């Protein structure tokens, strides 16, 4: 038995579905999307979102995905001059997209640290209702204190506490969604649309961080409740996903890593008392495709050049060094100076999370020296998410993906297009048919709700309507 198959069967993954699903992750702000090519659209115009969502739907994608950042990105304490500015609110954007799409799932990333559960549950229920059961919530905890400065309660939660809070938050939201009985669907017309007595139960939660005492305002949706995605990779984040999530948006797209991640999540899911296959996994990924592999490699060089120029490369390092490095030549070696702080977990940039700055920067200097890479070359390889890239001809990449499907390493991929709004065209026009020919990609939508299309079971109504006190 091949090693990866053994790893999966030991973890309890016995019957891979043999099928992959695609999601599209419209990132907006980041260095992964090229905003300055002649073909680039706008990061805020509805047209960009509409075009990507409709192309994805033409390609039978399961989900359209929006990230969340609750503050304009800063760099060394100033608005990030090399980043595009502006990110529309995810739920509002998805509500607009619901009216120009019919099958694709609409996933809003929303954090549990700066929202309130009963309110968020109601807004997501509304999206679920008006999209006919296509809403999903990507649960994140948000890992920087500077986001917290924007909120009355500030950046008050450390890592472990954020997950305790997240669990209470999600359980409360689920209690809200569970609160209406199966027959308590609002009926047409003024007479029949009132809930009958006892049709819904009151949700009460009193915990460390918030108190909820409400009668939820909406009955269940066509897919029972929004699908729950989760993104967060620490052991606490993985256990949280194993207990609560339907799908993980993971950062593990490479084959061996994906297999190891699947085995780890399956073991955690079983320990949490859920079926081994209860949690689907869709890693972040990028596709650079062409008719031949030589053309794809050429295209990759062009993409990397436009994603990260000399200034972006230096700015990228500055996030980790915590200081200005503008005197350093982007075509020369990595800076031979230490970072401004030895160790920090929360800074205004995004580079320091959990990383020990001194250790990390020393390691990078050594790595770049060994590979004889300049700052620019090093950052293009590091920040360009080389590990998440699938580069090759349509058929080569299709063969590669089919190998993931065969062993059940993942349930699909969440694709970040490097060009907006045309970045999915070659995937939908060429890769999807190749995958369909190999029998590893759907040829039609299974149903209308996201839950149906992802092949997820309808949740059982919780027997107790009150979440545990946390
Ligand atoms: C693939 C992925 C995507 C994420 N997307 C977002 C996002 O859009 N907004 C956000 O605030 N946090 C996002 N996060 C960060 C998580 O919310 C979390 O705060 C962070 O990963 C730290 O938790 P961890 O230590 O469990 O990984 C993302 C994390 C991952 C792994």
TrEMBL record:
Gene3D superfamilies: Luciferase-like domain. Belongs to the NtaA/SnaA/DszA monooxygenase family. This is LLM class flavin-dependent oxidoreductase. Transmembrane segments: none annotated. Keywords: Flavoprotein, FMN, Monooxygenase, Oxidoreductase. The keyword Manganese does not apply. It comes from Arthrobacter cheniae. Residues 21-409 form the Luciferase-like domain. It comes from the Bacteria. It holds the Pfam family Bac_luciferase. The keyword Ion transport does not apply. NCBIfam families: FMN_nitrolo (TIGR03860). InterPro entries: Diverse_substr_monoxygenases, Luciferase-like_dom, Luciferase-like_sf, NTA_MOA. GO terms for molecular function: monooxygenase activity; oxidoreductase activity, acting on paired donors, with incorporation or reduction of molecular oxygen. Residues 186-205 are annotated as: Disordered. FMN binds at residues 109, 159, 163, 234.
